[in-house]
């Protein structure tokens, strides 16, 4: 058992409010595609002739809907059959035990919530919510998956769009404000599966006023020097160790 898990466990137990930022590394550990940050862009570009950023954008949605939906179905919706893995289940357990208070993510696959987390802020929305921009009627993932062409609203015949922030769209101000308020409340800020230079962190860590910023990520990155604790590890393994530590103390 590593000392670092003990130290973090101690901080978490003293913390009145712990906010978790859940990043791409957790998604990768779970076998999900990370198409938004360019990680797998080369394959996408070969297949579609455009990058993921170009296709999954508001411009593409308005002008090339068929290609947009082919990409959406094949690259994003095809992944939802993979259930939430160990890391997300551990995160949910720690939330249920009152150790974590809020989970914030930019990821679109609704994984923290599907794993059982309750207080989740999805900055960019979720692919589990699809709606008609005209009348607001909502449609499940299956409705989009089962349509070969452009999925249309059964009420008004307009295209059903994903309830996520596309490239070129702005994040809802209310959502950012909610996330910023959570950050300000945090005693401990736990960054999981990403580094401090990521979009997620650069957008939010400025609001954190505490001095217990912990980063757990599989990759070392120069920005992690800015953390109070950096633990290079898979997130699911690290959370498992933290849970074991917590249990030990209870005995
Ligand atoms: Zn409609």
In short:
This protein folds into two domains: 3-31 and 83-124 and 170-250, Rossmann fold, CATH 3.40.50.1220; 41-80 and 131-164, SIR2/SIRT2 'Small Domain' (2-Layer Sandwich). The chain has helices at 3-14, 24-29, 41-48, 52-55, 58-63, 65-76, 86-96, 111-115, 141-145, 173-185, 199-204, 235-250, and strands at 18-22, 102-105, 120-122, 125-132, 138-139, 160-164, 188-192, 212-217, 229-232. It is 41% helix and 17% strand.
Structure in words:
This protein has 251 residues and is an alpha/beta fold. The protein contains twelve helices and nine strands. Strands 3-2-1-7-8-9 form a six-stranded parallel sheet, with helices on both faces. Strand 7 (188-192), helix 11 (199-204) and strand 8 form a beta-alpha-beta unit.
Structural key phrases:
251 residues; alpha/beta; Rossmann fold; SIR2/SIRT2 'Small Domain'; 2 domains; 6-stranded parallel beta sheet; 3-stranded antiparallel beta sheet; 9 strands; 17% strand; binds zinc ion
Ordered list of secondary-structure elements with their pairings:
Blueprint: H1 3-14, E1 18-22, H2 24-29, H3 41-48, H4 52-55, H5 58-63, H6 65-76, H7 86-96, E2 102-105, H8 111-115, E3 120-122, E4 125-132, E5 138-139, H9 141-145, E6 160-164, H10 173-185, E7 188-192, H11 199-204, E8 212-217, E9 229-232, H12 235-250
Parallel strand pairs: 1-2, 1-7, 2-3, 7-8, 8-9
Antiparallel strand pairs: 4-5, 4-6
Helix pairs in contact: 1-12, 7-12
The structure holds zinc ion (ZN).
């Amino acid at each position: 058992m590593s000392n670092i898990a003990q130290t973090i466990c101690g901080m978490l137990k003293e913390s009145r409010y712990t906010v978790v930022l859940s990043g791409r590394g957790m998604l990768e550990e779970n076998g999900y595609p990370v198409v938004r940050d360019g990680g797998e862009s080369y394959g996408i570009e070969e297949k579609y002739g455009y990058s993921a950023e170009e296709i999954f954008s508001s411009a593409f949605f308005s002008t090339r809907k068929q290609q947009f939906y082919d990409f959406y179905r094949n690259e994003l919706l095809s992944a939802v059959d993979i259930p939430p893995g160990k890391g997300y289940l551990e995160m949910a357990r720690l939330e249920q035990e009152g150790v974590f208070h809020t989970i914030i993510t930019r990821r679109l696959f609704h994984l923290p919530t599907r794993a059982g987390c309750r207080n989740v802020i999805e900055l960019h929305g979720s692919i589990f919510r699809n709606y008609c921009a005209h009348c607001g009627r909502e449609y499940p993932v299956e409705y989009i998956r089962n349509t070969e062409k452009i999925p249309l609203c059964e009420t008004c015949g307009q295209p059903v769009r994903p309830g996520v922030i596309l490239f070129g769209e702005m994040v809802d101000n209310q959502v950012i404000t909610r996330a910023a308020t959570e950050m300000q409340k945090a005693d401990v800020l736990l960054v999981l599966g990403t580094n401090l230079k990521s979009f997620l962190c650069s957008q939010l860590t400025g609001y954190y006023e505490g001095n217990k910023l912990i980063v757990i990520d599989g990759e070392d990155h120069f920005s992690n020097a800015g953390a109070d604790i950096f633990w290079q590890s898979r997130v699911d393994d690290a959370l498992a160790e933290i849970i074991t530590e917590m249990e030990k103390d209870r005995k």
